[in-house]
Amino acid sequence: IDWPVPQQALIKGDARVRSIAAASILAKVSRDACLTELDLQYPGYGLARHKGYPTPEHKEALFRLGPTPLHRRSYAPVIQALQRTL
Fold first, then answer.
1. How far is CA 37 from CA 4, 8, 45, 53, 55, in A?
2. Angle at 23 between CA 18 and CA 24, to 5 degrees
3. What's the pLDDT tens digit per position in 75-84?
4. Which residues have C-beta within 8 Å of that of residue 36, sequence separation ≥ 6?
5. pTM of whole model > 0.70?
6. Per-residue pLDDT averaged across 10-23, rounded?
7. Alpha helices (runs of H) in 1-86, residue ranges in sequence order
8. Which residue, of 6, 15, 71, 85, is most buried by count of CB atoms within 10 Å of its CB?
């Protein structure tokens, strides 16, 4: 991507630059809050507990309930769950 402002990728930047570390924490807290809200819209997936990480509980729900519109269709367990419903 050609960004209109100067930028540089920084490997392990969150361990080296405080503003990157802070942004990482804010992003995680925001994502966790969103998944807690989405847990109410999509009960049964445990989104508030595992925050969307591919835990055994999440994968089991995916196969039992099928994917939500939020699930990435390119993710292997989602593809497998979709194939089971066909």
1. 34, 34, 12, 16, 19
2. 95
3. 898 999 888 8
4. 47, 48
5. yes
6. 96
7. 13-16, 18-41, 47-50, 56-65, 76-85
8. 71
